[in-house]
Each structure stands twice: as structure tokens, then as C-alpha cells.
Amino acid sequence: MTTNKKTKEYSNGVLTIVWEPAICAHSEICIKSLPEVYNPYGKPWITIEKATTDQLKVQINKCPSGALSYYMNGEEPKLEIEGTQVEVKLNGPLIISGNIQLTDVNGNTEGKTKKMAFCRCGDSSNKPYCDGTHAKIGFKG
Fold first, then answer.
1. DSSP 34-46
2. Average pLDDT for residues 51-58, to the nearest whole number?
3. In terms of domains, do 96 and 128 share one?
4. Residues 6 or more apart whose Cβ sits within 8 Å of residue 12
5. Considering just the CA atoms, what is the radius of gyration of the chain in Å?
6. pLDDT of 16 higher than 60
7. Which of 24, 70, 95, 101 could form a cystine bridge with 87, CB 3.0-4.6 A?
8. Does residue 63 share a domain with residue 30?
9. Dist. CA 73–CA 85, nearest whole Å
10. Of 100, 98, 89, nearest to 130 (Cα)?
11. Distance (Å, rounded) from C-alpha 5 to C-alpha 12?
12. Are residues 12 and 48 in contact, defined by beta-carbon separation less than 8 angstroms?
């Protein structure tokens, strides 16, 4: 289990984007939906001021892995999902959304209140998280 808690934050003064690279499934939904904001070759790779706060919120809520999240500046972070939801993506990861507590084989626990994408193909180099390997190996399931 990855215990890397490295995150980066990007703020426009109203909203702050939180990026957790260690759990990114590399679905590229961010890049495809707001290419003017997300440039994987840019420094920084997120240019938050190139979209409105509402556009950013809509896009971030589509992030399947939960690697991108946000909070409104001056407010407590909250989850828009009630309860826990599980979705099996065709030929892809298992998406779990809600209040989640993950315990690894060593008994270490990690709590999240958001989305997480878990590997189903068995070849992720970031187990238990999906890293997008399923697409490279042609996983079917």
C-alpha cells in the first residue's frame, strides 16, 4: 500500500484544488475536459486561473480516482456523496466513493472522504490503487 501523502494545492482565491499524484489513475479526464487548465507538460501543470470556479468544480467531480479534489476557501471540506457507492468500470478500475477506511496487509489504515480507484487488472505498480495500467495491457473485465 502506498503511504505517500504528498499533495499539491492550487488556489484561485475562491477554490483550492488538491492533487494527490500517488492515487492518480491517469484517465486524462482532467486534460480532455479542461486542457487550458491541465497541461501535464507545463510547470505548474495546473493553471487554475484559466477556468471559472464552477467549471473547475464540475471537472473535478468527474475525476474517477479522487486524485483531484477541491475545497472552497474559508469552508470546511465536505463530500457531495451520501453513503458509500461502488462502481465497476468496464475494463477498468473499481471506483469507491464516500467515507472510506482502507486497511493494508500490515494493519495500517487510511481514511478518505472522497473517491478512490482500485486496481482490478492486478498489474498496477501502485496497488491497491489503479495507475492506468489496465489500458496499457488491454485488461478486459
1. -TTTB-TTSSSSB
2. 96
3. yes
4. 48, 49, 53, 56
5. 15
6. yes
7. 95
8. yes
9. 27
10. 89
11. 23
12. yes
Q: Is 64 helix (H, G, I), strand (E, B) or coil?
A: coil
140 and 120 Cβ atoms separated by less than 8 Å: no
**Which segment of 24-33, 37-46, 56-65, 92-101 scores lowest on mean pLDDT?**
92-101
Domain count, the chain: 2
Cell of 35: 486542457
Which residue type, as a one-letter code, is found at position 66? G
pTM: 0.67
CB 102 within 8 A of CB 110: yes
What is each CA distance from 127 to 36, 77, 80, in whole angstroms? 31, 27, 26
Residue 93 to residue 89: CA distance in whole angstroms = 6
The verdict on 96 and 64 lying in the same domain is: no
Per the structure, the complete domain to which residue 25 belongs is given by: 8-72
